[in-house]
Write a structure and sequence with these properties.
The protein is α/β, with parallel strands linked by helices. It is 44% helix and 21% strand. α2 runs antiparallel to α5 (104-116) and α3 (55-67) runs parallel beside α4 (82-88). The longest helix has 27 residues, at 3-29. It is globular and about 65 Å long. It binds S-adenosyl-L-homocysteine, 3,4-dihydroxybenzoic acid and magnesium ion. Residues 51, 149, 175-176 line the site of 3,4-dihydroxybenzoic acid (DHB).
Amino acid sequence: MTDNHADITKLQQDEEKREHIVSTITRMFAPEDDALRQAIASAKEADMPAIQISPLQGKMLQLLAAACNAHKILEIGSLAGYSGIWLARALPAGGRLIALEISPKHAEVVRNSFARAGVADRTEVRVGKALDLLPQLQSEAPFDLVFIDADKPPYPQYLAWALKLTRPGSIIVADNCIRGGRALAPDDQDEGTRGVYQYNTDVINNPRLVSLALAMDDEYMDGFTISVVQA
Ligand code: SAH
Ligand code: DHB
Ligand code: MG
């Protein structure tokens, strides 16, 4: 047996170990219930892409909501309501999640997902282009947590709105901020990836924000950038 072969065997064992660790943490800390599984199933039935966050990311959103005592949460981009269920379930009695979604079809699926999850009373889905809906939210600010997960080219504009709509101590989270490393370097071919790179640069350079990109999805190839708003 060559050393090369031994190296490959070791890599495969490490890979299996990492997968085992992620699935075990998921089972222990972030198990899905029927409503979460149904949200994914209904997306599939409606021919929508399976691009929702992972269970561990859902639990991370709940942890962050708890950390900033979130009563008001804003989500930009809802798909089938999977991340929205995790967020809405982190709210205390009287709390509110506003979800912005451009597709009327997706919005309908989201409302059904929220109803099945028992969070219809504390959630509201607004249909439209996020950049058109965000200015109307100023009278409902401040939001304690903003989760950005819609189209990628306007991520820097979503950040600017998130900063307007939050308070010191609020948390701003954006999905897909690593993209296999492509969103950590300038001049990518993809406009969306360039938007996310600009987002990362903007949070890093903003003295009001403490930020970190956290590889925790897609076998550590993708993940959130998390920012806390300071005074
Ligand atoms: N947050 C979801 C996944 C969102 S996928 C989850 O993890 O469960 C991205 C969603 O953003 C899609 O439903 C898409 O229709 C929506 N979207 C895309 N462009 C948008 C825009 N300009 N304004 C609002 N929503 C948008
Ligand atoms: C895509 C969008 C997402 O928000 C995501 O988490 C994964 C993929 C996409 O548009 O391909
Ligand atoms: Mg995403």
